[in-house]
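Title: Prediction job returns without error message
Component: structure pipeline
Severity: low
Priority: P3
Assignee: unassigned

Description:
Job completed but the reporter wants confirmation the result is attached to the right record. Sequence as submitted:
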Amino acid sequence: MKTNEYLKILVEQIHSAVVATIGVDGHPQTRVIDMMLWDDKGIYFLTAKGKAFYAQLMEQNYISLSATKDHYSISLRGKITNIGSKKLDKIFEQNKYMQQIYPSDTRDALEVFAIYEAEGEFFDISDPSHVTRDSFAIGKIHKKQTGYFVKMGCIGCKLCYSVCPQKCIDISKKPVTIDQNHCLHCGRCAEICPKQVIEKRGF
């Protein structure tokens, strides 16, 4: 799927995400924040200017979030920017419950933030024996190559396949290849490889 399809799932199907920032004590802090809007430029959410969360966003300009619903999960790590009241009316139009939380002029307490440059990952376990994962990027970030990869030197012993929970390793050729869209990143293949030619990248 394309990035926009993942953003649509995050906003329209999952909607609520656990967002992490760093508190004044230097430790991570999390809270549940609704992802209100998406477009080709990113994801939009809002918060009140009087909250500690707002101060952390303004100071750090970076967040990490995880969201899950049913069998889907999406995670994002990246840069944010405050766009003030831009898109506020559209957010209230598309998220009508906000009109009851902040009626009439009380919405002046809110400002909108955009996640505009981020790395993301999608995970689908609707078929547990055949999970699906994918990485995507918002903005100028390029997708990183993450996972376990088999280098030259593979002897085709098939031990990696024998311990792979998803059986997502093609053992019909040498070196064997791991299907990154179905790999759990458990690392069992790397542990058992007698030649130690399976390497972990991008973590």
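Comment from assignee: result matches the submitted record. The helical segments are 3-14, 52-60, 88-94, 98-101, 159-163, 188-192.
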